[in-house]
Design goal:
alpha/beta, 6-stranded mixed sheet, 33% helix
Amino acid sequence: MTSFAIISDLHSNIEALSAVLSRLDREGVDRILCLGDVVGYGPDPEKCIDLVMENCDLTICGNHDEALFKGAHDFNPVARQVIEYNRRMLKPNLWAGAAKRARWRFIERLPERHQEGDFLMVHGSPRDPIHEYMMKTDVIFIPDKIRDIFTYFEGLCFVGHTHFPGVFTSDLQFRDPGQLNQRWEWDGERAVVNVGSVGQPRDGDPRASCVVVEDGVVRFLRVDYDIATVQRKIYDNPNIPDLCAARLEIGK
């Protein structure tokens, strides 16, 4: 049986990404797919890009990746400060070496979506692949939004962006991994799976999040990593606000 893993929202957190890749190696997955936001928030965008280039069979574009080239005009001040810093780090000048140019080209050429049989992969939503958030509260407060999003795809769609893992189903329900006992089986009806965030979880669990998919069964994984080391790097870097470190230990 073949299996693949999906990761998203790495946000320049090399400690989290390395731990997740090690776990996926032990899981024996055949392929790893990335739903974007390789950069932003964290201290190691170059190392994260290198690992993604080496280990992921597919990477699509997230809003932070896009902002390197189009600007972070609609970002909050913290996110904007870090992405502008990332741009200064990553953008090659006339004397840049081959590695720096390769990283820049890689991010610049990321596609907005990827369809693979019954599976659609986007960063945000099927309706707006890069920017739209599918919030768990939308099923209660903006159900028409979710109904409309479900008209934009067939089969099973995987997203990231909100940093909050779980499953949206066609009956306008959202279930988080805890409610699902970390396992959900696709029944062929349209559904959206949010895989959560590797580098900056926001669901109250500080462990890195990802999923493994095998024969229509989605398993939600949480992976411990060295949060303190990432925090020290951020606190020592005047270009990254301390909030980006503080929130890691509480998963918010």
